[in-house]
Amino acid sequence: MNNSFILMALVTLASPWAETAENINYFDPMDVFELEWASDPQVSSDGETIVYVRKSNDIMKDRVRSNLWRIAKDGIDHRPLHSGFKNSYSPRWSPDNERIAFVSNNSGSVQIHMHWVDTGETAVISQLQESPSSLSWSPDGKWLAFTMRVKAETISLTKERDKPDGASWAKKPITVTNTRYQYDGRGIVEPSYRHIFVVPAEGGSARQLTDGDFNHYGLLSWSNDSKNIFFSAHRSNDWELISGEADIYSVSISNSELIQITKQSGEERSPAISPNGEMIAFYVKERRPLAYTPSRIAVMKLKTGEIEIISKDLDDDADALFWSEDGKSIYFAFDNRGERTIKQISLNGDLNEIASNVGGTTIGRPYISGGFHVANGTVAYTYGRSDSPADVGVVVGDKVNVLTQLNEDILGYRKLGKVNGITYRSSFDNEEIQGWYITPPDYDPSKRYPLILEIHGGPHLAYGPHFSAELQIMAASGYIVFYDNYRGSSSYGEDFALLLQYKYSSPEDFADHMSGIDALIDRGIVDEKNLFIAGGSAGGIATAYAIGLTDRFNAAVSAKPVINWLSKPLTADSMVGQIYHQFPGPPWEHLEHYWERSPLSLVGNVSTPTMLITGENDRRTPISETEQFYQALRLRGIDSAMIRIPDTSHGIASRPSNLITKVDHILAWFEKYKN
Prior knowledge:
This protein is α+β, with helices and mostly antiparallel strands. The protein is built from 10 helices and 38 strands. The chain has an 8-stranded mixed sheet with strand order 31-32-34-33-35-36-37-38, sandwiched between helices.
């Protein structure tokens, strides 16, 4: 018998996903390629039709594919607008609803396209050298504004030497002189700055409106007379060294005149002009040296410059601002206890909830997600559930309808794990912690199951009762999967988020996790002799830290962790913001503090078999961090494995096959150590 065949047979038999009669109807890892989800719904100005981005995983290209579809608000006339094997996204209705502008690579490069609703014709209307973002129509329908990176001029420190004809010399060195010189997913970057452009809606040459070595980003909002564009930027000369600072500006499309609208300390972002043109709404964040600061909704009278915070009673982030048609209120997204809702706030601060169950756009893990759009009283949003990614939901008046069933063809015929909520008290200080646990399909309450604790990243992010392909695969393999919003998580108010200030990671959040596990053991549903732990990014840090504090876990998987806080901040792309917000100062001034937060400081206590998984191109948590922990574990004789994902940055699961690979390795490692 062929040796390769024998090896393949052994791998198959060892896999938790060897097909059996028991799991044939369960959610299978390859089902990831069958999933679809809605994103970026846009309502026509008459409120009658919704265009949305329909996303899916292309099994042949191993990439997420984005197409455009349309559907009437009553659910009829559901059909493709622009689909195929290329990607189309960012659909934006013209003010008269006769055209839809969008971005696509259908022509071979990423360009702005125009679709005529009456004829169905589509044309490319730009010739851009870089990808456009933040597409926005002028109210008169004559212009499209967008942002785009512009390469900065670079000056060589030396004169290039002449080489003989036909000579083969080494590649030129890369000269770096910028403070922010690298970005995860892009690597070492050429200096460039994001600027605002306009292009005629009929097609033509793009014209740059802003200049300077600054970035102009985020949502663009037009004045009602179509003469000016409002945006957010940080235009101080030392912007590279400062985080948490931005102001609102306007720029004239006729002469590029720049006017600074806000001048207060902190961040003012995402401007939105009121229907009468007299006010501007935006987010404001106080600038302070803390890891978490909530976003508030501010309204400014343009004539007087008077600013009022209208969401002062909300104790968490507000996001995505849209004015009501009468200009008396603002729609926004609000996260609370692991779930996203759409709310409406009057200029007096009165609140009304419009919709819940917003989510379903993060497929791998159950993070809070989702978006919405409003026009003429119609609210379209990404409707998520615990058992399915996002569909298109719509609110008209008080009535909520879900217009699509994008995954009924696959998930309607799969047995999924059930998502259950749990609240408990942390053994550290009796703080209430919220979490969820997924029971395996065909769950038997009389049995005790092995448990996987899966810890979210951030740490100032949040999980919720949302669909998760990764966790459903784990549950289908016979595990109870537990996840919690430990101290520091968002959506529980400012005080809760700041319980982790300068404690990244700590015995305190460790206690939050372990108390949840003990609560499930007390319920009699978990086999305490089969406990496993996994997490990614901040969750990977917490995992590595936890196994330095306890030997209760049979095995651990730490994905893309930070192991040594003395080395990470000065080798990663998050340097500036992290040092001055999540730590009391730079490492050379707080050596002991950084070391105390480092899982490497506890490696001498580790006895848990540990797998590490990191993308080789990760610049958020560089793979050198993973290498340090792996080598330390090997030196100590701890069974360990290092899984290096080629050509991959921090978002390991951004390619569908990598999502599957990640979970396959986690489950194989845990199966190896299951009692």
